[in-house]
Design a protein that fits this description.
- Helix content is about 40%, strand content about 15%.
- The chain is of the alpha/beta class.
- It folds into two domains: about 200 residues, Rossmann fold (3-Layer(aba) Sandwich); about 90 residues, UDP-galactose 4-epimerase, domain 1.
- The strands form four sheets. A seven-stranded parallel sheet has the order 3-2-1-4-5-6-11, sandwiched between helices. A two-stranded parallel sheet has the order 7-10. Strands 8-13 form a two-stranded parallel ribbon.
- The model has no long low-confidence stretch (mean pLDDT about 95).
- The structure holds NADP nicotinamide-adenine-dinucleotide phosphate and ligand F7E.
- Ligand F7E binds next to helix 6.
Length: about 325
Amino acid sequence: MKRALITGVTGQDGSYLCELLLDKGYEVHGVVRRASTETFERIGHLAGKIHLHQADLLDQLSIIDVVKEAQPDEVYNLAAMSFVPTSWKQPALTAEYTAIGVTKVLEAVKLLGRDKIKFYQASSSEMFGKVQAVPQTESTPFYPRSPYGVAKLYGHWITVNYRESYGMYCCSGILFNHESERRGREFVTRKVTDGVARIKLGLAKALKLGNLDAKRDWGFAGDYVRAMYLMLQQPTPDDYVVATGQTHTVKRLVELAFAAAGLDWQKYVEIDPSLVRPAEVDLLIGDPAKAKAKLGWVPEVTFEQLVERMVRADLARLQGQPLPDFKARGI
Ligand code: NAP
Ligand code: F7E
């Protein structure tokens, strides 16, 4: 039986990746941080099926101990400070988690299994920032626009460096925005679908947003964790762009989400200048051709299906109902 270790297991992607690896028969281990209240909402349904270990990316020895205990064949490093606006407020901490944290996990892997443990790094389209080419591919030059993007760029290059310096099996997945009903509520998709559901149910009157003109290549998180897994099943390690190849404005997201609840967005959306970022990433659109050709990876959920799914899930959650059966609805 193969064993996997996931940092960031309590996050959106960690929860979907757990489900995928359990389905494939893996023994799954996850890293959790100690907090005064548990943050296990997304993996609550997996209790008893996965093994949790306390550690923190800030603490090198704790990461070494976890790798020793879990004895993984594959390590997925998903842990990070992942919210872009916070990276301007806490730039040094963001660098500790999102940049140096990667080195700490790589060092633990190098120490305990450099020839046998495969490593996945959660890199990001935010590294393209002020884009130098359209669409963005694995060879597009990077130009990050936030402390988060800068920290992810370090994580990307240190992953490439350990592969080249030590011959380790290290992959960097350059993932474009991916969303779901498990997305944190501060990110724009979930903020919008949660806001729509609240307005529909009479729990809120308006929704405040920032820049509606930004364009993103949005996909479904469940599809994207499949790409992570596929990267580690190849004969040689490599880096891959994972994206849908389509881009939409925030305004289009808003229109679709309100329409999914039978509402006209123009009556409810207010622009709040404090939500506009000091430096924006105006346009992201990825070219997933390499992932398709080499991994056989294609996204299955469309943008329209994703938005509908998230609105339905937020409506159900706020009414205390079970989540809809998305598989039965084909989304
Ligand atoms: P998320 O929901 O914000 O989850 C982040 C995870 O990291 C949480 O489990 C969090 O634990 C953990 N974490 C943060 N700091 C840590 C530390 N010091 N030590 C240990 N764990 C720590 O993020 P996500 O959307 O699942 O994304 C997963 C990864 O992919 C992240 O690295 C993100 O930057 C990257 N990424 C995401 C996207 C996207 O669109 N979602 C795109 C490209 C790349 P707590 O629960 O304790 O806070
Ligand atoms: O913003 C605009 C905002 O916070 C998307 C992370 O997972 O993907 C994510 O980063 C866009 C931006 O995601 C609001 O200005 C307008 O242009 O949902 P977001 P992000 O910054 O693209 C990348 C790939 C990652 O790696 C990150 O970890 O939406 N926007 N109004 C707003 N954004 C937010 N959050 N809130 C607003 O009110």
